[in-house]
Design brief:
- By secondary structure, the chain is mainly α.
- It has one domain.
- Helices cover about 70% and strands about 0% of the residues.
- It is built from 5 helices and no strands.
Length: about 120
Amino acid sequence: MKRANPFVNQDLRRIQTFIYLIPVVGFFPALWMLYQRQGSREQRAVSRLAVTLATGWLFGYLLLGAGASAAQAGALPLLITSSLLTSGYFLVNLWLMVRLWQRKAIWLPGVSQVSDRLP
């Protein structure tokens, strides 16, 4: 079992955790951190949550875009839903960043339960 390094700066870890929550861009460092299997327990949980949110957003965005291009008459409602999904994704990430800044728990009902089941 690895021992935690007592000389690691906690503020540096917190900044890294902020990076994971940046919409779209934070997906890649979060995925890399999970691939490396490093970081604290909180960082791994936030990384799993960021990867789950980004994957869900991308999957929904692509499906709604494909549906809008395939449907001629019902394209507008699908495009509006896609824009609402994207806005919601960005707002949720911003809200999680505010919660991290306030040093509160980073947890979303349903999404966190799914992300906790990831390896």
